[in-house]
Amino acid sequence: MTTLEAPGTPPPPPAAATRPLARKRSRPSEQLFKWLVMGLTAITIAMLIWLISSVVIKGAGSLSWAFLADKPSSNPDKAGFNSALRGSVVLMIITIFFAWPIGVAAALYLEKFATQSAEASERKVRERLGSGVSGVHAGWLRVRLSWLRVRPRVVHLVDVNISNLAAVPSIIYGLLGLAIFVGILGISKSLLAGGLTLAVLILPIIIIAAREALRAVPISIEQGAMALGATRWQAVRSQVFPAALPGILTGTILAMSRAIGETAPLIVVGGIVFGTAVPSLNPLDAGNEALFAMPLQIYFWTDQPQASFQAIAAAGIIVLLATLLVMNLVAIILRNRYSKRW
Amino acid sequence: MKARRIYASLAALAVVGGSVTLAACGSSSSSSDTSGGSGATDLAGKITIDGSSTVAPLTTAAAEAFNGKNPDVNITVGTSGTGGGFEVFCKGETDISNASREIKDEEAEACKKAGIEYVPVRVASDGITLVTKAGVDVGKACLTFPELKKIWEPGSKVNNWSQVGSGFKDLPLALAGAGSESGTYDFFNETILGEDAKGEVIQSRQDYSASEDDNVTVRAVTDAEAGLGYFGFSYYEANTDTMQAFAVDGGKGCVEPTIDSITKGDYPISRPLYIYVSKKALARPEVKAFVTDYVDNATQLATDAKFVPAPQSALDESKQAIGAS
Q: Does residue A259 belong to the interface with chain B, where contact is any CB pair within 8 Å?
């Protein structure tokens, strides 16, 4: 009120910062950088187009209904992709069935429950210990107390390791799968063993993606729910989780896209390229079905001397790419359907 | 409402599976037919085969033919390599192991420890073929073992054909060949470089374009001005329009790699291809029928699958070995 301008004084000239950005004279280095970035993008896109078109040119001729319906064969004119396609479908079902619930649950715990309530719980346990409980109950409370004390450190350790696991070469997961699922659990070298191995392989990716999605939900949503009397579980279940779901699903399907293209771990777990029987599509039979997968079949075909095998390998790549595109399409639809902005 | 949204998402996820499944489903009718009705037997069971990826296409062809006659016998073929194949074979996990070389002593030891007895059955042949680009004249069309040794021995600095010996032209020599995981690599080194004082196979020089995928070697040779590469005969046979093979002199004169010279073993870098059959598995009627069928038709199968057949005498021996056990 005291700083009223005297009438008649002209308004001050607009500050430099408020001038429209576009009118700024661009520096040469800025131009150079722009062109550099554009050039690099063009190279990337050109390579992608070149790759896809060369595959399509080579493989389109071999792509037919018979190719999708036939069993593998030593004769490239008769060889089909049916076993491999079915194998990969069953693998994906098993992989998502195991990796998704475990991965999302782990992310929920690590992001929302592991560290945030440590102090409060510790205080509560102490109070109850002080109120004169005895015997087994007191012992249990003491165990809980010591767990609460080491928990942050354990969580930190798990944290670091999950990030590291996401960068481990996939063949290591193959060896792990062979040792645990085939060696210790005694599962035969089958689609089930392969699917479980792939599930372990993508678990860190799902956890990281899901945590990222959970973190992107504004904390005020959760706090608001809790201020209205919801417990943390209720707030997370009905507010945070649904809001994070599109992100979680996108991350999941990207992880699945990685799993569907993996070859190395499947070779180690006993992947095969020829069988007279076509694997059943029922995931419950997977424990007895031979481990077929699209990338394995493609790899075997590219290694053959006859040129016609190269053509059907290209056709196989087209089918693999189409499957991937369908999966990514679903990811995009889901994201657009559920995404919410604050 | 929130719950409905979650269910909707899960349903949408199911659509991913579903839409892909549809693609496969339409063809489910073909799962267990294609058997020629004639000559069907009552043999049934499962035969598990693993091992060399070189032999796999031939065994696959045999399995297809056998399955046509015996639709209830389910045969699977893996390709974990000769060494990888023997590893599971000697644990009793597979019935038959494809091998592009004979079983090594330590592998035989492992089999013996596990109580796995086996019969080696020769099914075909292969010749390691040395090639350069078609239409290139390096001075000679025949390479002797000492010349090959000079090129490939460890520490060799040969990078021009003129360094190989007199009579070769002044042309850059780019090398390509099998990677160290491959049975082809082992066999080539064993034949050309031999063993050192300790009885270990000498490893060739490593500064060449090495690949487990022989088609990469094919490309490396056709791209080089006057390169030298080696791989199994079928890769040469599939690319005769773009490359030419050298004759090889193993001490008894120059021999061209041909189906005939490799079958007879006249070509000095030729090797037999085997299947190793577990004796325990051979006691099962379906395995015995399959192996017998395989050996009976080995020559025809090899010709169809672009392999070099085994000599008839070797096949007869194989047949006796199967019958005797």
A: no
- Domain membership of residue B58 (yes or no) is yes
- The answer to whether residues B261 and B280 belong to one domain is no
Note the pLDDT of residue B22. Answer: 43
Q: Is residue B171 part of a domain?
A: yes
Which residue type sits at A339? S
CB A126 within 8 A of CB A145: yes
Q: Extract the residue ranges of chain B whose pLDDT is less than 50.
A: 1-2, 15-39
Q: Are residues B89 and B151 in the same domain?
A: no
Domain boundary among B255, B270, B285: B270
Q: Nearest CB to B16: which of A82, A242, A330?
A: A330
What the block records as the tokens of B185 is 């690599």
The total of other beta-carbon atoms located within 10 Å of residue B248's CB is 27
In which residue are the tokens 């990888």 written?
B84
Sequence-ordered list of residues with C-beta below 8 angstroms from that of A222, at least 6 positions apart, any chain: A112, A232, A235, A236, A239, A240
A302–B5 C-beta distance less than 8 A: no
Structure tokens at B110: 């492992």
Which CATH number is associated with domain A75-338? 1.10.3720.10
Can you give the CATH number for the domain in which B311 is found? 3.40.190.10
Nearest partner of B24 among A294, A110, A35, judged by Cα: A294
Asked if A72 contacts B60 with a C-beta cutoff of 8 angstroms, the reply is yes
- For the stretch B18-44, pLDDT in tens is 444 444 443 333 333 343 444 456 788
> Is A287 near chain B, with CB under 8 Å?
no
Which A residues in the span 1-60 are in contact with B, Cβ-Cβ below 8 Å? none
Beta-bridge mates of residue B73:
B45
B267-297 burial: b if 16+ Cβ within 10 Å, else e: bbbbbbbbbbbbeebbebebbbbbbbbbbeb
Q: What is the pTM of this model?
A: 0.80
Looking at residue A33, its amino acid is: F
